[in-house]
Design brief:
The protein is of the alpha/beta class. It is built from twelve helices and ten strands.
Length: 280
């Protein structure tokens, strides 16, 4: 049975009031309108739902079963609406997206440590492009990424800095020549991180790199480095978590908080910005 919500509501009102006229008064509608929706709902059900007893309508067993089911559903909706009104911060989750290295090792520990116990948090890790896609689709409320965003209607503001470390590199000062010959381990979106480090530390990236392994996740790349399979460049928070120290100079990178419309003016945005930018 395909349910028409307007007709179901009319049936529920008639069953509760015991008649068409009383239901019309309660609902602020005309009796003909209520009667038409009631009869259409009964026709949709395919069985008689009520019978007339004197001046009142009495539900059949099938009508009683449908009435009780609709009554429970309406009670659930009323309860949910009341919860949203009275406990908005707890009932409505704060949905955050963040690039992986910064998200897992700096933002997530701070968010879950500082969030109110009753506040629901939905935290997604993804790439820069995924963060922007999620924002545009309404999947997340706020996102943190490592590139400036100029795509309207997404607004952005710098909120934190991180350093990028070269780890697992050959002994000696890092140069474009020796790093171009050494095996390296890449991961999704490594191009930006590598390019940023090489640009700041060595002025330019070598024309080619000897990529030995490629991993989807930064963590697997760092496991490969720890196993001696090559070098990589990673955010400091992730590198420290794996016990590394930087092999030479570090590069600095800015983290950007993004939101749609006026989201960046919200209390949630100010809270996230404060957590992201707080000293370690």
């Amino acid at each position: 049975m395909k349910i028409d919500l307007r007709r179901a509501a009319a049936f529920h009102a008639v069953a509760r009031a015991g008649g068409i006229n009383a239901a019309a008064r309660n609902e602020g509608r005309s009796p003909p309108s209520i009667h038409a929706d009631f009869r259409r709902f009964e026709r949709d059900a395919g069985v008689p739902l009520a019978e007339r007893v004197g001046r009142r309508l009495r539900l059949t067993p099938e009508g009683r079963a449908l009435y009780e089911a609709i009554d429970r559903a309406l009670a659930e909706v009323a309860h949910a609406a009341e919860q949203v009104r009275s406990e908005a911060p707890a009932a409505v989750p704060l949905r955050i997206g963040c690039v992986t290295g910064f998200g897992r090792y700096r933002l997530a520990p701070r968010v879950f440590r500082e969030a109110e116990r009753t506040r629901r948090i939905v935290l997604r890790m993804g790439s820069h492009d995924q963060i922007l896609d999620w924002l545009s689709a309404g999947v997340i409320d706020l996102g943190i990424t490592y590139r400036g965003v100029v795509a309207a209607p997404i607004e952005s503001v710098a909120v934190a800095e991180e350093t990028l470390w070269l780890v697992g590199a050959p002994d000696g000062p890092p140069t474009r020549d020796n790093l171009s010959r050494a095996p390296c381990i890449a991961y999704d979106e490594y191009e930006y991180v590598f390019g940023h480090w090489f640009g700041q530390v060595l002025a330019a990236q070598p024309p080619g790199l000897a990529v030995r392994d490629h991993c989807n996740e930064l963590e697997e790349a760092l496991i490969g480095v720890r196993a001696g399979r090559g070098f990589t460049i990673a955010p400091e928070d992730a590198a420290r978590a794996f016990g590394f120290e930087p092999c030479g100079p570090v590069a600095r990178n800015t983290l950007i908080l993004c939101g749609m419309g006026n989201r960046l003016a919200s209390e949630d945005a100010r809270w996230i910005a404060g957590l992201a930018g707080a000293p370690a």
